[in-house]
């Protein structure tokens, strides 16, 4: 596309004042709020961890020691690789994928129901019921989950009283509380993109398939899911990215033995005071997540443009 | 070739809450027939079709297909295929996949499906388009793909819900002939829905005319046109000049009607109204524009009206003359263009006449609104 052609058109549509404002706002947003901070993090991750007086001094050169540290660990440590950090890293990604799948399984039927039954009133109440809990802030929700899943929490109480179990189950240690909390935290980000696409699916297509004898699962497999793919992939992308990068929920709901990779990053930034190492770890997490998302998109033949829908 | 299968609606009522969408429908559709439901928008045509295809059950009455009561059979269990008002092609499947979806459902192999798709594509003359997506086709091509997809399921009854309404005039006329041709070739029963009387009359063996959920008349196209059963049918199908009045006298199959504006006029009593009309009843007389002609002299008679030419409209094969009758009554007359000098001119007073059996008298009733 010819940039000179876009701009006069753009200004004609938006007027000079609004047009300029929008351009500046977008520029500020992209450059100042996204690109610059990330670039400085990237820059940080390749520097030595130095005390402030030595910054900018002769020792302040570029290095990949922090990346090496993530893979190989400290020199002279027992094993050849940084088993602890890498283990947490992989576990975090697997858990994030798991949370994404759980959300998808929960949300697809719900989104389908919301999107295809044009029953106005009831549907609206249902959507409202989904949104209202999000007025409560994340910390409060996480602690509420701690209470529900605690040793003497609601779930254990019910199970004990009905005689289903003899001993309380330690949901926190088993990380069930964490997975439930994360799944719940991002459920709306899964439902709404899927709901949006499915709502625009022409009901006649479903009926046409039914008329031709298709059972319900084939209707979903061949018609609804392919149609909803852009919504499904944008929902999955968001849930995966956000749960891999979550911090509050793992802090509050995670079992004592299980760290989330973000917690390690946080420790380096915060108590460790080693910003370059924290930055390096964070960038590895970011890049890996992007690679996972892109390769899944390629595997499922989703185009980048579809995600925005 | 399949043999067509009969479809019978027996006292079918369909209600949505308190609203009655279809009342007391009794229709017998013969096997292999091209049958049309004709009616204005919102009269319940789609609703009837959905009841035949199984997407909804009648609130009362029976739908019989091939002599079998269809109650409890879902759309996938009925020997029908429905072509939707908006076609509802699957946008993400290629043309050939769309067409053979019903075979895919039955678990046919890809090779068989390809083969069948090629046959059907040849029938609809789209052999070179099989790899395209529906969005890459023209309106008429989509239309034909939808027909092929429905036929692929080898239904006994094909249901078509205004499938031509989205096409432009030329294409629509072309598709009419094509549809009729396909129907003759496959020999199955077609139930066709339309609000376009031209479509209904040109294609169908029989037509049911509907008004607000009620079926007013079921007959061949010509009978619908020449011998309407109700005032609604007379005014909805084709154009008609209507004269309101009371029956002045009855004489066998003819009646004299004292019109409110034009004096006494004579006309044939419609067959549906024979024996049921009495002197003094409110009645309507209908005479078609093409049944009117200019009288040779100006003497008065019971089959004559006088009127003043307002303006003319040239239509090629005919020209339409719009006239003001007595007391401001508007009339329309169509004269065939035979290449001669026009016999009328603006502002001229004319005496019009018609042959009494080309005008019909019906009990007064609701008219179709334009
Ligand atoms: N599911 C429904 N619930 C309530 N009313 C309905 C429903 N479906 C149809 N109706 C009503 O039934 C009447 C007939 O509808 P239908 O769709 O059969 O009309 P139609 O003759 O096909 O009209 P068109 O030519 O515009 O397609 C309409 O008044 C419509 O509002
Ligand atoms: Mg309709």
Secondary structure: number of strands of chain B: 20
| Major β-sheet profile of chain B | 6 strands, mixed
User: Roughly what is the average pLDDT of chain B, rounded to an integer?
Assistant: 89
Please count the beta strands of chain A (DSSP E, at least 2 residues each).
0
What percent of residues of chain A adopt helix (DSSP H or I)?
A: over 70%
| Beta-strand content estimate of chain B | 25-35%
Q: pLDDT under 50 segments of chain A (min length 5)?
A: none
Strand order of the largest sheet of chain B: 6-7-8-3-9-10
Structural class of chain A: mainly alpha
| CATH architecture type of the largest domain in chain B | 3-Layer(aba) Sandwich
CATH superfamily of the domain at 88-257 in chain A: MetI-like
By DSSP (H or I, 4+ residues per run), the number of helices of chain A equals: 15
CATH topology of the largest domain in chain B: Rossmann fold
State the CATH superfamily name of the largest domain in chain B.
Answer: P-loop containing nucleotide triphosphate hydrolases
Give the biggest sheet of chain A: none
Describe the structure.
- The complex is a heterodimer of chains A (309) and B (370).
- Chain A has helices spanning 3-14, 16-45, 65-72, 83-116, 120-131, 138-149, 154-161, 176-185, 187-199, 203-211, 216-244, 248-253, 261-269, 275-299, 304-307.
- By secondary structure, chain A is an all-alpha fold.
- Chain A has a domain at 88-257: MetI-like fold (Orthogonal Bundle), CATH 1.10.3720.10.
- In chain A, α11 (216-244) runs antiparallel to α14.
- In chain A, 28% of the residues are buried.
- With 370 residues, chain B is α+β, with helices and mostly antiparallel strands.
- Chain B contains nine helices and 20 strands.
- In chain B, a hairpin with a 3-residue loop joins β12 (254-259) and β13 (263-269).
- In chain B, α4 (110-123) crosses α5.
- Chain B is elongated and about 80 Å long.
- The mean pLDDT of chain B is 89.
- The chains are: A mainly alpha (309), B alpha+beta (370).
- Chain A binds chain B through residues 202, 204-205, 207-215, 218, 222-223, 226-227, and chain B through 53, 55, 74-76, 80-82, 84-86, 88, 90-93, 101-102, 104-106, 149, 153.
- The structure holds adenosine-5'-triphosphate and magnesium ion.
- Residues 45-46, 85, 161 of chain B line the site of magnesium ion.
- Magnesium ion binds next to α1 of chain B.
């Amino acid at each position: 596309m010819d940039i000179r052609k876009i701009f006069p058109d753009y200004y004609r549509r938006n007027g000079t004042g609004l047009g300029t404002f929008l351009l500046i706002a977008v520029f500020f947003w992209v450059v100042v709020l996204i690109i610059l901070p990330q670039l400085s993090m990237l820059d940080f991750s390749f520097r030595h961890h130095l005390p402030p007086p030595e910054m900018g001094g002769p020792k302040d050169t570029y290095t990949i020691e922090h990346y090496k540290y993530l893979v190989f660990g400290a020199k002279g440590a027992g094993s050849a690789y940084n088993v602890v950090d890498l283990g947490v890293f992989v576990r975090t990604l697997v858990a994030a994928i798991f949370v994404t799948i759980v959300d998808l399984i929960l949300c697809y039927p719900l989104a389908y129901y919301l999107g295809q039954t044009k029953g106005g009133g009831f549907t609206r109440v249902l959507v409202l019921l989904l949104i209202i809990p999000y007025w409560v802030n994340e910390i409060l929700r996480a602690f509420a989950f701690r209470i529900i899943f605690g040793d003497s929490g609601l779930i254990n109480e019910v199970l004990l009283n009905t005689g289903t179990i003899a001993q309380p189950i330690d949901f926190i240690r088993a990380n069930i509380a964490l997975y439930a909390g994360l799944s719940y935290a991002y459920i709306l980000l899964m439902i709404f993109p899927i709901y949006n696409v499915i709502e625009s699916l022409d009901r006649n297509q479903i009926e046409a398939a039914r008329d031709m004898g298709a059972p319900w699962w084939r209707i979903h497999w061949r018609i609804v899911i392919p149609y909803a793919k852009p919504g499904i992939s944008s929902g999955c992308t968001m849930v995966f990215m956000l749960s891999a990068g979550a911090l509050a929920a793992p802090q509050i709901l995670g079992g004592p033995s299980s760290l989330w990779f973000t917690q390690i990053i946080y420790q380096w930034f915060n108590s460790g005071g080693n910003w370059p190492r924290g930055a390096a770890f964070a960038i590895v997490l970011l890049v890996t997540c992007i690679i996972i998302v892109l390769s899944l998109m390629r595997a499922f033949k989703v185009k980048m443009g579809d995600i925005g829908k | 070739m399949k043999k067509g299968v009969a479809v019978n609606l027996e006292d079918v009522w369909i209600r949505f809450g308190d609203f009655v969408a279809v009342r007391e429908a009794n229709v017998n559709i013969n096997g292999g027939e091209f049958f049309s439901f004709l009616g204005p928008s919102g009269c319940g045509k789609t609703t009837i079709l959905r009841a035949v295809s199984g997407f909804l059950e009648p609130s009362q009455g029976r739908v019989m297909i091939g002599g079998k009561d269809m109650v409890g059979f879902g759309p996938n269990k009925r020997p029908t295929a429905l072509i939707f008002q908006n076609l509802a092609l699957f946008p993400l499947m290629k043309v050939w996949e769309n067409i053979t979806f019903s075979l895919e459902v039955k678990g046919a192999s890809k090779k068989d499906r390809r083969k069948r798709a090629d046959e059907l594509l040849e029938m609809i003359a789209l052999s070179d388009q099989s790899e395209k997506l529906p969005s890459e086709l023209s309106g008429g091509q989509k239309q034909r793909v939808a027909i092929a997809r429905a036929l692929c399921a080898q239904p006994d009854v094909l249901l078509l819900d205004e499938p031509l309404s989205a096409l432009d005039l030329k294409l629509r006329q072309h598709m009419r002939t094509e549809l009729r041709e396909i129907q003759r070739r496959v020999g199955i029963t077609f139930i066709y829905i339309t609000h376009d009387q031209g479509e209904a009359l040109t294609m169908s063996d029989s037509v049911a005319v509907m008004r607000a959920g009620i079926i007013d008349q079921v007959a061949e196209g010509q009978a619908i046109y020449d011998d309407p059963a109700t005032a609604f049918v007379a005014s909805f199908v084709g154009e008609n000049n209507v004269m309101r009045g009371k029956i002045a006298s009855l004489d066998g199959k003819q009646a004299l009607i004292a019109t409110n504006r034009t004096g006494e006029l004579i006309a044939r009593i419609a067959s549906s109204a024979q024996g049921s009309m009495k002197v003094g009843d409110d009645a309507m007389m209908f005479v078609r524009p093409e049944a009117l002609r200019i009288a040779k002299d100006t003497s008065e008679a019971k089959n004559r009206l006088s009127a003043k030419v307002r303006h003319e409209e040239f239509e090629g094969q005919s020209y339409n003359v719009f006239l003001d009758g007595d007391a401001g009554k508007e009339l329309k007359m169509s004269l065939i263009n035979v290449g001669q000098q026009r016999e009328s001119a603006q502002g001229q007073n004319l005496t019009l006449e018609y042959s009494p059996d080309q005008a019909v008298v019906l009990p007064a009733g609701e008219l179709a609104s334009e």
